[in-house]
Each structure stands twice: as structure tokens, then as C-alpha cells.
Amino acid sequence: MTQPAVLDDDEVDLGQLVVTLWKGKVLIALTTAIGIAAGAFIIANTNPTFQADALLQLEEKTGSLALPSSLNAMVGNDDPRSVTEIEILRSRMVLGQAVADQNLDWRVSPDMAPVIGTMLSRYRFSVIDTVIPDHFIRPGERIALDHLVVPPAWLNREIELVVLSDQSYRLALPDGLQIDGAVGQQATLAETGFSLTLASIDAPPGRRFTIQQVDEIRAITSLRERLGISERGRASGILEVRLSGEDRLGNARALNAVIQAYLRQNISRSAAEAESSLTFIREQLPQAERNLREAEAELNAFRQQQVSVDLSLETQTILGQVTRIEGELAELQRSEDELRQRYTPAHPTYRALLDDRQRLEARLAELREQVGALPETQRQILNLTRGVELAQGIYTELLTRAQEVEVLRASTIGNVRIVDAAAAGPMPIAPRKALILALAMVLGGMVGIALVLIRNWMRKGVQDGSELEKLGLPVFATINYNKAADTDGKRQGKLPILALEQTADLTIEALRSLRTSLHFGMLDARTPTLCVTSAHPEAGKSFLALNLAVVAAQSGQRVCLIDADLRRGQLRRFFDVPRNHPGLAEVLAGDLLADQAVIQGPVENLCFLPTGRYPPNPSEMLMREEFSRLVDWCGQNFDLAIFDTPPALAVTDPVIVARNTGATIFVARHDVTHLGEVEATIKTFSAAGLRLSGAVLNGFDPRKARGRYGYGYRYDYKQRKQ
């Protein structure tokens, strides 16, 4: 036979987890609703954020500027990297110019109500509009600032503006002065250098606004935080520039100012590069011209000295070949520089180039040997002629580059082009309503689940009889919960007896089962007397004692119900007995005999002994000999005597009563009585040399099993006044 699977203590019972969460569905639904409401409030109380965007193209630079082609090939001519341009766009040089162009260092803020101020500035609530003070902003109200100049000492300080009418206002300045102004007219304070002009007022009298001019660094930092720049694709040279903020049209204006400032610096940077190159060329031209003149003069002087005018045909041929080979070697050097970036020296193309260079160098060496074999005069003329040609080539190339740079400087347009001008998106990018509501709903549900699980983890209430049996208490019965059994403490007059009102109810059937269990369980008891107690108030012990007495009497047993709670006993209300009627207190005091104090109950064979007047010393009275004689009298005259006692953890009365009775049962309330309280009650009786005969699990509700975790009682069991 296959053995059933048994879960370890540290394993999670998914089925029980689902049941626990289902039992807490109301709490989960409530927290989820609260989360959705909180998300809706956040959306309503947050100003929408819009975004403006633009596209820029970084064009490739063509040509070189100042250097000759031979030198330009050595230094290279790479395009600017996008990351460099992005950092330039975010620089203080560019953003500072945009701040100055658009007056982005001005701040105008309305006076807003705390917590819900943003929502009140967006939506009109006629119900609470009259309650909100007049100085708080309402929807559609604003002022437009046309001019603002503050002294350096007032930077980052607030200036309060109060609207007096649609054309006038009053300013409270940082130095404590107040001045009045009108729309379109400049309000000035000559001694401090302050001046302000309002373009318009769209707000009723009483509204307050705060005006502030921040320092340049703070304004640039604020603009930089709102600015986003990225490259579309890799090495595409296309930059996407974005600017976010609450002012949709203002975003486009500010972004356009940033782009224009960037274009201006780009053009000025290109012009500066051309100017720098032209300066370099102009500095080199005089030296190149002097070198040319000196070479020509040296050649002419040598010719005059040697009375030689022309080179021989052989010498001219050698000179031409040397010049040609040197030019080819220079070209091969540039080609080698390019091949070195792509190939290794072992590549066939690279090897062919090296072979060509080796051949030319060998030929050049031969020509130089021929030059060495020439007569001294021809050899010197050859060297001087080569010097003149070299100097003339450099001078000619510098003149050509100077003319090119002049043209380039005159037509400088930069290497940045606007693909898409700055434009404001029609829809806000934040708050993202669907995402916020979804997150709020999920978080609300998670909080509800967490609360349910935490309360389930913290729960210590008894859930079923097996938990009591593990503590050594046999469970005589489990009494189902019945709403009619919950009596309101403030209710006046006679209280109904459930065993007489609902005779067929499952709760009464459980009491009949308890009656049977006690009949056999008390066969060995020294007296047919039963003490009923609990750990705390509201466990249902009085309900149990009363209805058990009724069903026992209905079975033909002679039953006496004694209210032994001399502090707060209320069983008399079920029998409609006056408060001052004599009872147990008078019997224990010796003022009355037991048979004289007993009252006939509503059922045949049922008698009731009320508490009588509450004595000042109930514990001492229960310890008298009269109580033992009362218990003996009950055993002689009744088949069952039930003593309803106070909670065992509140007072010592139940221990005193249990010492004289034949059996003691403990009443535990389902999902309310702590297991620790049960253990404490067992220890209390054990310390007195007594033991509990068994227990009854009262108020069991299958619908609430594992689903309720709160407790609402205290150990407060004070004596009632008569």
C-alpha cells in the first residue's frame, strides 16, 4: 500500500496557503482598492510632464586646413566623435547661452495648498473651493513675467507677489520692503538695482506667487537635468536631443535655444580652426620665401663664381631622375602608412610595396653614386638646384593653402545640420497612468497578502480540538458558533436561552453530545458537581454552563446551576431574577440556607442559584466551610450541579471551586483563546494540585477557520457594582 505523503514542518502547504488567502480576500480586496485609490491620487496630484525633441546630423569634415598634404597624411583627419559633441551640447558654454536667451533663470511659482495643491491647481472642486484659503492657486490661474533684474545679493531669494487686481500687484522684497506695481509698467528700486515688469495677470485678487531669480550655475544644472541626448544607431552621426518639463511650449523654445547656441559655437569653432590654420600659414610664408631667396642667391652666386650658367645634359638627367625617385618614395611612404592600418608586413600587397621601395632606394643609391662621380662643380650645382626646387615647392604649396583657407574661412558653416527642428509632443510622457495604476494595484494586493500572511503567522488562537489534545486535555465536545449566542452586554432585561429558543440547532446538538460525554466521564467523580471555567472573558463559559444545564434537565436529570462568579456573574438575567435577589453570597455568609435561595428554572428539574449581592471578598467567602457544605448538599439533592466560575487567569476563584467539585472543564474559544493561555491555565491548576478533567472548544465556525486572527479582549475582570 502506498503511504500518504507527509509534509515536513518547513515545507509550504500550498493548499492551506490558498485557503488562507481566500479567507482574507476581503482584506486583500480592501488594500488593493486603497492602492488603486492612492495611484489615482498620485496621478491627479502630479502635473503632466511633456517632452520636446529635435534631430541633429554631424556631417563629415572634408579636406584639410593648414598642413601640406604630406604632413596632413601623417596627422590624419578623423571626424569628431558623437560623444564629444554630446558633451559639448551639455556644456556650460552652450547651456549658459540658452539660459540667457530664454531667461531660464527666472522662477515663478504659485502658492499651492499642502498635499493636494497640485490637484487643486489642475481640477476645480466646487465643494471644497470655498474652504480653501484665497491665496492658494486654482486651475488656469497664472502670471507672465516680462522683465526681471535683481541685485546679486537677492539671487536665489524669494520675492512674494500678491495680486491686487487684474492690473495691479504688490511685491514683498527680501529686504522687507513692499512696493506696488501695475501690469506693463516697470517696478523698480533704484537704490538696490531691482526692476520687474509683469506682462499679464490671469488670477483673481488675493492669489500669491513666488518670484525668484536663481544663479547661473543652478539654472544650468536644472536645464541639464531635463536634457537628454543620445545617438541613433551606432556611428550614425544622428543625435536625438530631448528636453522634458511641465511647460509643453516652453520645452520647445528652450530646446531650440540650446540647439541654436550649439550651432553658433560649432560655426565659431570651425571658423576658429580655419583662422588658426591661416595664422600658421602666414607665419610660415615669410620663412619659406626667405629660404627660397637664399637658395636662389646661393645658386646664382656659385654660377657667377664658376662662370657656369647651365647644367650639362647628363647632370640635368641625373637631377630629374633623383627628384622623380624621391617623389615616388614619398608617395610609397604615404601608401605604406595606409596599408599598415589594414595589413601586416606579410601581406602580399604590403610585400609588393616594400619591394618597390627597395628597388627605388637601390636606384636612388646608384644615382647618388653617379652624382658623386660628377665633377665637383657639376655636383655642387646639382645640390644647389635641388635646394632651390625644394624651397620653391614648399613656398608654392603654402601660397595655395593660404588661398584655400581664406575661402574656407569666408564660407564656414560648421559640420552640424538640423534634421528636425525642436517640436513639443502633444501627449505627456509622465505620469504614466496605466503603469502607475497597475503598480498601485499590484502593490496594494501584495500589501493585503502580506497582512493576511503576517496575521496568520502571528495567530495563536486554538483552531481545532487536536491542539488542545496535544496539551493533554481531552476534548469532550466542539460547540459550533451561533450568532444568537452572542449577547450584547448593553442589552437590558431578560436574555433568551438558546436551548429553549432553538432546540434543533447544531449548537444545541453539540451540547447534548457534551452532556452524554460528561455523563460517562464523571462516573468516577467523587461528587456529581462540575466546575466550568476559561482562561479569559468572552470565551462562552456562562453560555455553555447555562445551556448544558438546560439540556441535562430536559433529559430528566435533576440539575442545579450555580452562578459562582461573585464578581461579575450575570446568569440571573437569563432567569429574569432581580439584582438584589439573595443567592450564593448570602448562603456562604450563613444568612440563608441553600434550599431557601434556589430558584426554580424555566425547565422541569432545573434549579438556579444566583450570585446574590457581590461581596467585597469573593475569594475568602469561597474558601469558607459553607461552600464545601453547599457542594455536598448539591451532590445529595441533584444528579448534576454546574458551577459557573470566573476566568482562571484573571482571579483565583476557579481553583478554589475546583478543589471541592468532582470535575472541571475548560472552555476555549475557537480562534480567540491562545494556546499559551491554555498552558498557563493548566499550570495554574497544577500548582494547586489539581488537574483539568477536559476541555470544550466553543464558538467553532468552519467559515472562519484559519481566516481570523484578531483579538479584542483584555485581562480586565473587575467586580461589578450591585
Q: What would a concise description of this structure say?
A:
The protein folds into 4 domains: 14-46 and 431-458, no CATH class; 106-213, no CATH class; 285-413; 474-483 and 504-704, P-loop containing nucleotide triphosphate hydrolases (Rossmann fold), CATH 3.40.50.300. It is 47% helix and 17% strand.
Could you name the CATH class of the largest domain? Answer: Alpha Beta
So, the CATH homologous superfamily of the largest domain?
Answer: P-loop containing nucleotide triphosphate hydrolases
Please state the average pLDDT score.
84
Beta-strand portion reads 15-25%
Cα Rg? 53 Å
Strand order within the widest sheet? 13-20-19-14-18-15-17-16
- The domain count comes to 4
Strands, count: 20
Shape: elongated
List low-pLDDT spans: 1-10, 62-80, 706-716
Q: What is the second-level CATH architecture of the largest domain?
A: 3-Layer(aba) Sandwich
The helix tally amounts to 23
CATH topology annotation of the largest domain: Rossmann fold
Helix content: 40-55%
For the largest beta-sheet, the strand count, sense and barrel status come to: 8 strands, mixed
